[in-house]
Amino acid sequence: MSAMPPGNPASNPFVTSPTYLMACQQLRNVARAISLDPGLTDRLMTPKRSQVVAIPVRMEDGRTETFVGYRVQHSLTSGPSKGGLRYAKNVDLGEVAALAMWMSWKCGIMNLPFGGAKGGIAVDPAELKGGEKERLTRRFTDEIQNIIGPRVDVMAPDMGTDEQTMAWIYDTYSMKVGYACPEIVTGKPVELGGCVGRKEATGRGVVYCITEAFNELDIRPETATAVVQGFGNVGSVTCEELVKLGVKVVAVGDRYGSIRNARGIDIPQLLNYAARNPRKTIVGFPGAEAIPDAELLTTPCTVLVPAALERVITAENAGQLRCRVLAEAANGPTDPEADAIISNSDIFVIPDILCNAGGVTVSYFEWVQDLAQFMWDEEEVNSQLKKQMLRAFHRVRAEAKARNFGNRLAALSLGVQKVATEKQKRGLYP
């Protein structure tokens, strides 16, 4: 059973989301493991601030359509809240709240001066035409203007959004406050104060963690194979970086389908193929065979990288995974029931809040550079990213060994404990 949040469940707006209940269950597990005060646990389970807004947009055909947008700030204890903005057809308040909670733990693991936040608009971005996406983004920014700011809440790209989306938010916010404010968002174009290497940061961070896992397990990259679910920004960069190490990528999937080639997929050719495809999909790539989506995650490999949606590894397929390393590039790809099954196997798990923390880490670098108006070169960015990722990886492994925890519980306990300690030190007002 998933842990229920505090208060009256009937009046809690988040409980209809299985993703939020999953995040609550994880927090309860950590609280028991580290003997966290129940009152503090309840505080950590309840987002600090949530806002739901209606976003009317003039569509290309002249009609007006109203979309629903969300922004959830889980914690403001450690500093301004930080988190992505996703455009996805089925996004809801509970999912956004769960992602915001995970972002708090992620920032805690990486020792960043941020709390967790997340935003979303219930829309399929592939269906937007002409200037609709820009108008949607600018109106959403205007609607949540009262709860964002460079010292309050800083957005970044996520699923369905990109650096152009961030540029529109930056411009809209700056027009409202009356001066250029690049530090309001991260992941924006370099020409507007973005950080070099930010776009590739999450995928690079994933591969830094995989490399450390290989070292610990005595696996040589040139003998390893990989399966990657998701070929967006994170999945494609992960594929590129793995190939540079000598790893053979044997199967890849995206929202439209999955492909496999046991001899290895030519990733540069696949990138070119997807870029030329009107739907930006890998489906139909001549250098691999099509396979059912259900077979992708169970394809034999050294490292499996879910880099798409949450809750794709469940009790139904967890026992069929045939990988040595599970590197969670997506947020929440493994549900608690599946996690219990995997914990009884020899699979080495790199949990999501560690594995995909490269994005928020370089977002922090970008925010610092914008505040200081002093930009770093890419060598410095990548060097600092690798340093921070390896430090966090080894902290998690040390915690796991010292307390006989699995990697997920170790990572969560470090993230939760940091936020909990800061709340305790600050006290309760009034």
Automatic annotation (TrEMBL):
MF terms (GO), sorted A to Z: glutamate dehydrogenase (NAD+) activity; nucleotide binding
Gene Ontology terms describing biological process: L-glutamate catabolic process
SMART domains reported for this sequence: ELFV_dehydrog
Keyword annotations of the record: NAD, Nucleotide-binding, Oxidoreductase
Glutamate/phenylalanine/leucine/valine/L-tryptophan dehydrogenase C-terminal domain ranges (all copies): 195-427
Protein residues bound to substrate: 82, 106, 363
InterPro entries: Aminoacid_DH-like_N_sf (IPR046346), Glu/Leu/Phe/Val/Trp_DH (IPR006095), Glu/Leu/Phe/Val/Trp_DH_C (IPR006096), Glu/Leu/Phe/Val/Trp_DH_dimer (IPR006097), Glu/Leu/Phe/Val_DH_AS (IPR033524), Glu_DH (IPR014362), NAD(P)-bd_dom_sf (IPR036291), NAD_bind_Glu_DH (IPR033922)
Active site (UniProt): 118
Feature type site, description Important for catalysis: 158
Family designation: Belongs to the Glu/Leu/Phe/Val dehydrogenases family.
Protein name as catalogued: Glutamate dehydrogenase
Source organism per UniProt: Gemmata obscuriglobus
Lineage summary: Bacteria, Pseudomonadati, Planctomycetota, Planctomycetia, Gemmatales
